[in-house]
Amino acid sequence: MSRESSSLSESSIDESQNGLVISGESDTSSINSGHIFVTDSEDEQFTLEKLQRTRKRLADEIKLMEEELTIIGQESNFVSECELLVQDHDDTTLTRSLRTGRKKFNRDPKDGMKYLIEKNVVNDTSEDVAMFLHTGELLDKSAIGTFLGEGKNYYIGVLRNFVVLYDFADMNLVDALRSFLSGFRLPGEAQKIDRMMELFAQRYCYCNPDVFKNPDSCYVLSFSVIMLNTSLHNPNVREKPTIDHFISMNRGINDGSDFPTEMLKNLYDCIKTDPFEIHDGADDLTQVFFNPDYEGYLIKEGGKHKSWCKRWFILSDNCLYYFKSPGDKEPRGIIPLENLEVKQCHDLRRPYCFEIISVPAMQYIQKGTIKACKTTGQGKVVTGNHQVYRIQASSAEEMMEWMQRINASIASNPFIEMLQERRQRVSNRGPVIL
Protein backbone atom coordinates (compact mmCIF):
# COMPACT_ATOMS: atom_id res chain seq x y z
CA MET A 1 0.00 0.00 0.00
CA SER A 2 1.35 3.42 -0.89
CA ARG A 3 1.82 6.21 1.55
CA GLU A 4 -1.08 8.22 0.03
CA SER A 5 -3.52 5.31 0.43
CA SER A 6 -2.37 4.74 3.95
CA SER A 7 -2.81 8.42 4.75
CA LEU A 8 -6.39 8.42 3.30
CA SER A 9 -7.27 5.27 5.20
CA GLU A 10 -6.05 6.74 8.40
CA SER A 11 -8.02 9.88 7.87
CA SER A 12 -11.26 7.85 7.48
CA ILE A 13 -12.24 7.20 11.04
CA ASP A 14 -15.50 5.57 12.20
CA GLU A 15 -16.50 7.04 15.57
CA SER A 16 -19.33 4.65 16.18
CA GLN A 17 -19.49 5.37 19.85
CA ASN A 18 -20.38 8.99 19.18
CA GLY A 19 -22.63 8.26 16.24
CA LEU A 20 -20.58 10.48 13.96
CA VAL A 21 -18.83 9.71 10.69
CA ILE A 22 -16.01 12.08 9.81
CA SER A 23 -14.80 11.83 6.25
CA GLY A 24 -11.87 13.62 4.85
CA GLU A 25 -9.61 15.99 6.61
CA SER A 26 -10.91 18.13 9.46
CA ASP A 27 -9.80 21.34 11.00
CA THR A 28 -8.38 20.85 14.48
CA SER A 29 -10.85 23.51 15.73
CA SER A 30 -13.64 21.00 15.27
CA ILE A 31 -12.15 18.63 17.80
CA ASN A 32 -13.55 19.11 21.30
CA SER A 33 -12.88 16.94 24.32
CA GLY A 34 -11.66 14.08 22.19
CA HIS A 35 -14.78 14.17 19.89
CA ILE A 36 -14.79 15.22 16.27
CA PHE A 37 -17.88 17.33 14.94
CA VAL A 38 -18.71 18.67 11.52
CA THR A 39 -21.28 21.60 11.74
CA ASP A 40 -23.24 23.74 9.25
CA SER A 41 -22.66 27.39 8.97
CA GLU A 42 -23.77 29.65 11.80
CA ASP A 43 -26.63 31.09 9.65
CA GLU A 44 -28.12 27.67 9.04
CA GLN A 45 -27.87 26.83 12.71
CA PHE A 46 -29.64 30.06 13.68
CA THR A 47 -32.40 29.46 11.13
CA LEU A 48 -32.98 25.96 12.44
CA GLU A 49 -33.26 27.14 16.01
CA LYS A 50 -35.64 29.94 14.95
CA LEU A 51 -37.88 27.48 13.12
CA GLN A 52 -37.96 25.22 16.15
CA ARG A 53 -38.97 28.11 18.39
CA THR A 54 -41.65 29.21 15.90
CA ARG A 55 -42.95 25.68 15.67
CA LYS A 56 -43.24 25.44 19.44
CA ARG A 57 -44.95 28.83 19.64
CA LEU A 58 -47.44 27.87 16.95
CA ALA A 59 -48.13 24.57 18.67
CA ASP A 60 -48.81 26.43 21.92
CA GLU A 61 -51.08 28.91 20.15
CA ILE A 62 -52.99 26.11 18.39
CA LYS A 63 -53.49 24.38 21.72
CA LEU A 64 -54.73 27.62 23.25
CA MET A 65 -57.10 28.18 20.33
CA GLU A 66 -58.43 24.65 20.67
CA GLU A 67 -59.12 25.28 24.34
CA GLU A 68 -60.85 28.57 23.50
CA LEU A 69 -62.93 26.89 20.78
CA THR A 70 -63.98 24.25 23.25
CA ILE A 71 -65.12 26.95 25.67
CA ILE A 72 -66.89 28.85 22.86
CA GLY A 73 -68.62 25.64 21.75
CA GLN A 74 -69.82 25.01 25.27
CA GLU A 75 -71.08 28.59 25.53
CA SER A 76 -72.76 28.30 22.13
CA ASN A 77 -74.51 25.12 23.17
CA PHE A 78 -75.62 26.83 26.35
CA VAL A 79 -76.95 29.82 24.40
CA SER A 80 -78.78 27.50 22.00
CA GLU A 81 -80.31 25.65 24.91
CA CYS A 82 -81.35 28.95 26.45
CA GLU A 83 -82.88 30.08 23.15
CA LEU A 84 -84.81 26.83 22.91
CA LEU A 85 -86.01 27.27 26.47
CA VAL A 86 -87.10 30.83 25.71
CA GLN A 87 -88.83 29.66 22.52
CA ASP A 88 -90.55 26.85 24.38
CA HIS A 89 -91.59 29.33 27.03
CA ASP A 90 -92.89 31.73 24.38
CA ASP A 91 -94.74 28.89 22.65
CA THR A 92 -96.20 27.76 25.95
CA THR A 93 -97.20 31.32 26.79
CA LEU A 94 -98.80 31.80 23.36
CA THR A 95 -100.66 28.51 23.64
CA ARG A 96 -101.85 29.42 27.11
CA SER A 97 -102.97 32.86 25.90
CA LEU A 98 -104.81 31.29 22.97
CA ARG A 99 -106.61 28.85 25.24
CA THR A 100 -107.58 31.60 27.69
CA GLY A 101 -108.57 33.93 24.86
CA ARG A 102 -110.92 31.37 23.35
CA LYS A 103 -112.70 30.93 26.66
CA LYS A 104 -113.01 34.69 27.08
CA PHE A 105 -114.27 35.08 23.51
CA ASN A 106 -116.95 32.42 23.96
CA ARG A 107 -118.19 34.23 27.08
CA ASP A 108 -117.83 37.79 25.77
CA PRO A 109 -116.71 38.14 22.13
CA LYS A 110 -115.54 41.76 22.40
CA ASP A 111 -113.48 41.27 25.56
CA GLY A 112 -112.15 37.96 24.30
CA MET A 113 -110.89 39.43 21.02
CA LYS A 114 -109.36 42.38 22.88
CA TYR A 115 -107.44 39.92 25.07
CA LEU A 116 -106.26 37.88 22.06
CA ILE A 117 -104.95 41.02 20.37
CA GLU A 118 -103.21 42.28 23.52
CA LYS A 119 -101.46 38.91 23.91
CA ASN A 120 -100.33 38.99 20.24
CA VAL A 121 -102.31 35.86 19.44
CA VAL A 122 -104.20 37.79 16.74
CA ASN A 123 -102.95 40.84 14.85
CA ASP A 124 -105.12 43.92 15.21
CA THR A 125 -106.26 44.05 11.59
CA SER A 126 -109.69 43.27 10.19
CA GLU A 127 -108.11 40.72 7.83
CA ASP A 128 -106.35 38.76 10.61
CA VAL A 129 -109.35 38.90 12.93
CA ALA A 130 -111.58 37.64 10.11
CA MET A 131 -109.17 34.79 9.38
CA PHE A 132 -109.08 33.80 13.06
CA LEU A 133 -112.89 33.72 13.19
CA HIS A 134 -113.14 31.90 9.87
CA THR A 135 -110.81 29.17 11.13
CA GLY A 136 -113.04 29.08 14.17
CA GLU A 137 -111.24 26.30 16.05
CA LEU A 138 -112.97 25.74 19.42
CA LEU A 139 -114.88 29.02 19.05
CA ASP A 140 -118.58 29.14 19.88
CA LYS A 141 -120.65 29.70 16.72
CA SER A 142 -123.04 32.05 18.50
CA ALA A 143 -120.12 34.14 19.80
CA ILE A 144 -118.72 34.44 16.27
CA GLY A 145 -122.12 35.58 15.01
CA THR A 146 -122.45 38.10 17.82
CA PHE A 147 -119.02 39.59 17.05
CA LEU A 148 -119.64 39.77 13.30
CA GLY A 149 -123.06 41.29 13.83
CA GLU A 150 -121.85 44.43 15.61
CA GLY A 151 -122.74 47.61 13.77
CA LYS A 152 -119.62 49.76 14.17
CA ASN A 153 -117.32 50.26 11.20
CA TYR A 154 -114.56 48.10 12.68
CA TYR A 155 -116.84 45.07 13.02
CA ILE A 156 -118.40 45.63 9.61
CA GLY A 157 -114.87 45.64 8.17
CA VAL A 158 -114.17 42.31 9.87
CA LEU A 159 -117.46 40.94 8.53
CA ARG A 160 -116.59 42.00 4.98
CA ASN A 161 -113.20 40.29 5.17
CA PHE A 162 -114.84 37.25 6.76
CA VAL A 163 -117.30 36.86 3.87
CA VAL A 164 -114.52 37.30 1.29
CA LEU A 165 -112.81 34.18 2.70
CA TYR A 166 -115.62 32.06 1.23
CA ASP A 167 -115.24 30.84 -2.33
CA PHE A 168 -118.69 30.16 -3.79
CA ALA A 169 -117.52 29.74 -7.39
CA ASP A 170 -119.52 27.07 -9.27
CA MET A 171 -121.61 26.27 -6.17
CA ASN A 172 -125.38 26.27 -6.34
CA LEU A 173 -127.18 28.54 -3.92
CA VAL A 174 -128.10 25.77 -1.47
CA ASP A 175 -124.52 24.55 -1.12
CA ALA A 176 -123.24 28.12 -0.77
CA LEU A 177 -125.76 28.86 1.99
CA ARG A 178 -124.90 25.59 3.69
CA SER A 179 -121.21 26.50 3.67
CA PHE A 180 -121.83 30.07 4.84
CA LEU A 181 -124.19 29.20 7.68
CA SER A 182 -121.94 26.43 8.99
CA GLY A 183 -119.28 28.93 10.07
CA PHE A 184 -121.33 30.85 12.63
CA ARG A 185 -124.79 31.33 14.04
CA LEU A 186 -126.70 34.33 12.78
CA PRO A 187 -127.73 36.75 15.54
CA GLY A 188 -131.39 37.35 16.25
CA GLU A 189 -131.58 41.04 15.39
CA ALA A 190 -133.15 41.76 12.00
CA GLN A 191 -130.71 44.50 11.04
CA LYS A 192 -127.71 42.25 11.71
CA ILE A 193 -129.22 39.39 9.72
CA ASP A 194 -129.96 41.76 6.87
CA ARG A 195 -126.37 43.04 6.77
CA MET A 196 -124.85 39.56 6.87
CA MET A 197 -127.14 38.12 4.22
CA GLU A 198 -126.65 41.14 1.99
CA LEU A 199 -122.88 40.59 2.06
CA PHE A 200 -123.44 36.90 1.38
CA ALA A 201 -125.53 37.77 -1.68
CA GLN A 202 -122.90 40.20 -2.94
CA ARG A 203 -120.14 37.62 -2.51
CA TYR A 204 -122.15 34.88 -4.22
CA CYS A 205 -122.88 37.14 -7.19
CA TYR A 206 -119.20 38.10 -7.40
CA CYS A 207 -118.17 34.43 -7.50
CA ASN A 208 -121.00 33.52 -9.89
CA PRO A 209 -121.67 36.60 -12.05
CA ASP A 210 -124.03 34.85 -14.49
CA VAL A 211 -126.57 33.39 -12.04
CA PHE A 212 -128.43 36.47 -10.74
CA LYS A 213 -129.14 39.82 -12.33
CA ASN A 214 -128.31 41.61 -9.07
CA PRO A 215 -127.50 40.82 -5.42
CA ASP A 216 -131.03 41.75 -4.26
CA SER A 217 -132.44 38.86 -6.29
CA CYS A 218 -129.90 36.52 -4.70
CA TYR A 219 -130.82 37.89 -1.26
CA VAL A 220 -134.55 37.22 -1.71
CA LEU A 221 -134.12 33.73 -3.16
CA SER A 222 -131.68 32.85 -0.37
CA PHE A 223 -134.36 33.48 2.23
CA SER A 224 -136.91 31.66 0.14
CA VAL A 225 -134.60 28.63 0.21
CA ILE A 226 -134.17 28.98 3.97
CA MET A 227 -137.92 29.15 4.55
CA LEU A 228 -138.35 26.13 2.28
CA ASN A 229 -135.87 24.22 4.43
CA THR A 230 -137.91 25.02 7.54
CA SER A 231 -141.26 24.22 5.93
CA LEU A 232 -140.12 20.87 4.52
CA HIS A 233 -138.33 19.58 7.61
CA ASN A 234 -140.09 21.17 10.59
CA PRO A 235 -142.50 18.57 12.01
CA ASN A 236 -144.80 21.36 13.22
CA VAL A 237 -145.52 22.39 9.62
CA ARG A 238 -148.34 20.17 8.41
CA GLU A 239 -148.76 21.37 4.84
CA LYS A 240 -145.44 20.91 3.06
CA PRO A 241 -144.84 23.21 0.07
CA THR A 242 -144.75 21.51 -3.31
CA ILE A 243 -142.30 22.23 -6.09
CA ASP A 244 -145.04 24.14 -7.94
CA HIS A 245 -145.69 26.29 -4.88
CA PHE A 246 -141.97 27.03 -4.51
CA ILE A 247 -141.73 28.05 -8.17
CA SER A 248 -144.86 30.19 -7.91
CA MET A 249 -143.74 32.09 -4.82
CA ASN A 250 -140.46 33.05 -6.53
CA ARG A 251 -141.87 34.43 -9.76
CA GLY A 252 -140.59 37.78 -10.92
CA ILE A 253 -137.89 38.25 -8.26
CA ASN A 254 -134.89 38.10 -10.60
CA ASP A 255 -134.96 41.82 -11.31
CA GLY A 256 -138.54 41.49 -12.51
CA SER A 257 -137.95 38.28 -14.44
CA ASP A 258 -138.48 34.63 -13.52
CA PHE A 259 -135.71 32.26 -12.60
CA PRO A 260 -135.23 29.23 -14.85
CA THR A 261 -137.62 26.49 -13.76
CA GLU A 262 -134.85 23.90 -13.85
CA MET A 263 -132.78 25.99 -11.43
CA LEU A 264 -135.64 26.25 -8.91
CA LYS A 265 -136.37 22.52 -9.19
CA ASN A 266 -132.74 21.77 -8.47
CA LEU A 267 -132.77 23.99 -5.37
CA TYR A 268 -136.00 22.38 -4.16
CA ASP A 269 -134.63 18.85 -4.59
CA CYS A 270 -131.38 19.75 -2.80
CA ILE A 271 -133.27 21.05 0.24
CA LYS A 272 -135.75 18.19 0.26
CA THR A 273 -133.10 15.47 0.16
CA ASP A 274 -130.42 17.19 2.24
CA PRO A 275 -131.64 19.81 4.75
CA PHE A 276 -129.34 22.35 6.32
CA GLU A 277 -127.29 21.01 9.20
CA ILE A 278 -126.24 23.58 11.75
CA HIS A 279 -123.17 22.98 13.94
CA ASP A 280 -124.87 24.22 17.10
CA GLY A 281 -127.42 21.40 16.90
CA ALA A 282 -130.53 23.48 16.28
CA ASP A 283 -133.48 21.36 15.23
CA ASP A 284 -134.34 23.60 12.31
CA LEU A 285 -133.09 26.75 10.68
CA THR A 286 -135.83 28.91 12.17
CA GLN A 287 -134.09 28.72 15.52
CA VAL A 288 -130.90 29.90 13.88
CA PHE A 289 -132.46 32.96 12.31
CA PHE A 290 -134.72 33.87 15.19
CA ASN A 291 -133.09 33.12 18.51
CA PRO A 292 -135.42 33.03 21.49
CA ASP A 293 -136.14 36.57 22.58
CA TYR A 294 -136.77 35.42 26.12
CA GLU A 295 -137.38 32.23 28.08
CA GLY A 296 -138.13 31.16 31.62
CA TYR A 297 -140.67 29.70 34.01
CA LEU A 298 -144.10 31.32 34.39
CA ILE A 299 -147.39 30.17 35.90
CA LYS A 300 -150.30 29.93 33.43
CA GLU A 301 -154.02 29.75 34.05
CA GLY A 302 -155.80 26.86 32.35
CA GLY A 303 -158.53 27.23 29.72
CA LYS A 304 -161.53 25.14 30.68
CA HIS A 305 -160.16 24.25 34.07
CA LYS A 306 -159.02 27.39 35.85
CA SER A 307 -156.13 25.72 37.59
CA TRP A 308 -152.69 27.35 37.52
CA CYS A 309 -149.72 25.33 36.28
CA LYS A 310 -146.02 26.10 36.09
CA ARG A 311 -144.78 26.06 32.51
CA TRP A 312 -141.53 26.81 30.67
CA PHE A 313 -142.16 29.69 28.23
CA ILE A 314 -140.13 30.63 25.16
CA LEU A 315 -140.74 33.83 23.20
CA SER A 316 -139.46 33.44 19.63
CA ASP A 317 -140.36 34.54 16.10
CA ASN A 318 -143.52 36.42 17.10
CA CYS A 319 -144.86 33.37 18.94
CA LEU A 320 -145.10 32.38 22.58
CA TYR A 321 -144.43 28.69 23.23
CA TYR A 322 -144.92 26.89 26.52
CA PHE A 323 -143.57 23.52 27.62
CA LYS A 324 -144.04 21.36 30.67
CA SER A 325 -140.28 21.50 31.30
CA PRO A 326 -137.22 23.02 29.56
CA GLY A 327 -136.03 19.67 28.23
CA ASP A 328 -139.22 18.90 26.29
CA LYS A 329 -138.88 18.81 22.51
CA GLU A 330 -142.54 19.48 21.69
CA PRO A 331 -144.42 22.47 23.14
CA ARG A 332 -147.65 22.00 25.07
CA GLY A 333 -149.03 25.11 23.42
CA ILE A 334 -148.29 27.75 20.77
CA ILE A 335 -149.68 31.29 20.88
CA PRO A 336 -149.15 33.33 17.68
CA LEU A 337 -148.93 36.95 18.76
CA GLU A 338 -150.42 38.64 15.68
CA ASN A 339 -153.32 40.97 16.54
CA LEU A 340 -152.77 40.46 20.26
CA GLU A 341 -151.65 42.73 23.02
CA VAL A 342 -150.38 42.31 26.56
CA LYS A 343 -151.31 44.29 29.64
CA GLN A 344 -150.98 44.05 33.38
CA CYS A 345 -153.93 42.70 35.32
CA HIS A 346 -154.55 43.43 38.98
CA ASP A 347 -155.48 40.44 41.07
CA LEU A 348 -154.80 40.53 44.78
CA ARG A 349 -154.73 36.75 44.88
CA ARG A 350 -152.27 36.60 41.96
CA PRO A 351 -149.64 39.34 42.15
CA TYR A 352 -147.27 40.06 39.22
CA CYS A 353 -149.88 38.87 36.74
CA PHE A 354 -150.35 39.95 33.12
CA GLU A 355 -152.71 38.88 30.38
CA ILE A 356 -152.60 38.44 26.63
CA ILE A 357 -155.78 39.42 24.82
CA SER A 358 -157.08 39.93 21.30
CA VAL A 359 -156.90 43.48 19.90
CA PRO A 360 -160.46 43.44 18.45
CA ALA A 361 -161.75 42.45 21.85
CA MET A 362 -160.60 45.81 23.16
CA GLN A 363 -162.56 47.63 20.50
CA TYR A 364 -165.88 45.86 21.06
CA ILE A 365 -165.46 45.11 24.76
CA GLN A 366 -166.46 41.55 23.97
CA LYS A 367 -163.56 39.13 24.07
CA GLY A 368 -163.15 36.54 21.33
CA THR A 369 -161.21 33.29 21.33
CA ILE A 370 -157.51 33.72 20.67
CA LYS A 371 -156.16 31.77 17.72
CA ALA A 372 -153.77 29.24 19.28
CA CYS A 373 -153.16 25.51 19.54
CA LYS A 374 -152.05 23.02 22.16
CA THR A 375 -151.31 19.32 22.53
CA THR A 376 -153.32 16.95 24.67
CA GLY A 377 -151.88 14.33 26.98
CA GLN A 378 -152.17 11.82 24.13
CA GLY A 379 -150.08 14.06 21.85
CA LYS A 380 -153.04 15.21 19.75
CA VAL A 381 -152.94 18.81 18.49
CA VAL A 382 -156.15 20.74 19.19
CA THR A 383 -157.28 24.34 18.85
CA GLY A 384 -156.94 26.46 21.95
CA ASN A 385 -160.05 27.86 23.61
CA HIS A 386 -158.65 30.83 25.51
CA GLN A 387 -160.31 34.20 25.28
CA VAL A 388 -157.51 35.55 27.42
CA TYR A 389 -154.21 34.11 28.63
CA ARG A 390 -153.46 35.00 32.23
CA ILE A 391 -149.86 34.47 33.24
CA GLN A 392 -148.10 35.07 36.55
CA ALA A 393 -144.44 35.98 37.03
CA SER A 394 -142.38 35.57 40.19
CA SER A 395 -141.65 39.28 40.68
CA ALA A 396 -142.63 42.71 39.44
CA GLU A 397 -139.33 43.03 37.56
CA GLU A 398 -139.83 39.71 35.79
CA MET A 399 -143.42 40.62 34.91
CA MET A 400 -142.36 43.94 33.35
CA GLU A 401 -139.54 42.24 31.42
CA TRP A 402 -141.91 39.68 29.91
CA MET A 403 -144.50 42.31 29.04
CA GLN A 404 -141.95 44.55 27.33
CA ARG A 405 -140.50 41.69 25.30
CA ILE A 406 -143.90 40.37 24.23
CA ASN A 407 -145.03 43.87 23.25
CA ALA A 408 -141.85 44.35 21.22
CA SER A 409 -142.48 41.06 19.44
CA ILE A 410 -146.12 41.94 18.79
CA ALA A 411 -145.30 45.43 17.51
CA SER A 412 -143.51 44.30 14.38
CA ASN A 413 -141.08 41.88 12.88
CA PRO A 414 -138.55 44.21 11.25
CA PHE A 415 -136.75 41.40 9.49
CA ILE A 416 -139.90 40.27 7.68
CA GLU A 417 -140.57 43.89 6.79
CA MET A 418 -137.09 44.28 5.29
CA LEU A 419 -137.45 41.04 3.36
CA GLN A 420 -140.82 42.12 1.96
CA GLU A 421 -139.43 45.51 1.03
CA ARG A 422 -136.52 43.94 -0.85
CA ARG A 423 -138.82 41.46 -2.59
CA GLN A 424 -141.03 44.34 -3.68
CA ARG A 425 -137.99 46.19 -4.97
CA VAL A 426 -136.75 43.39 -7.22
CA SER A 427 -140.27 42.53 -8.40
CA ASN A 428 -141.10 46.09 -9.47
CA ARG A 429 -138.00 46.69 -11.54
CA GLY A 430 -139.24 44.68 -14.49
CA PRO A 431 -137.13 43.59 -17.41
CA VAL A 432 -134.78 46.11 -18.92
CA ILE A 433 -135.82 47.21 -22.44
CA LEU A 434 -132.92 48.28 -24.65
UniProtKB/TrEMBL annotation:
<keyword id="KW-0175">Coiled coil</keyword>
<dbReference type="InterPro" id="IPR035999">
    <property type="entry name" value="Sec7_dom_sf"/>
</dbReference>
<dbReference type="InterPro" id="IPR000904">
    <property type="entry name" value="Sec7_dom"/>
</dbReference>
<dbReference type="GO" id="GO:0005085">
    <property type="term" value="F:guanyl-nucleotide exchange factor activity"/>
</dbReference>
<feature type="coiled-coil region">
    <location>
        <begin position="41"/>
        <end position="75"/>
    </location>
</feature>
<dbReference type="InterPro" id="IPR001849">
    <property type="entry name" value="PH_domain"/>
</dbReference>
<dbReference type="Pfam" id="PF00169">
    <property type="entry name" value="PH"/>
</dbReference>
<dbReference type="GO" id="GO:0032012">
    <property type="term" value="P:regulation of ARF protein signal transduction"/>
</dbReference>
<dbReference type="InterPro" id="IPR023394">
    <property type="entry name" value="Sec7_C_sf"/>
</dbReference>
<protein>
    <recommendedName>
        <fullName>SEC7 domain-containing protein</fullName>
    </recommendedName>
</protein>
<dbReference type="InterPro" id="IPR011993">
    <property type="entry name" value="PH-like_dom_sf"/>
</dbReference>
<dbReference type="Pfam" id="PF01369">
    <property type="entry name" value="Sec7"/>
</dbReference>
<feature type="domain" description="SEC7">
    <location>
        <begin position="96"/>
        <end position="274"/>
    </location>
</feature>
<feature type="domain" description="PH">
    <location>
        <begin position="291"/>
        <end position="411"/>
    </location>
</feature>
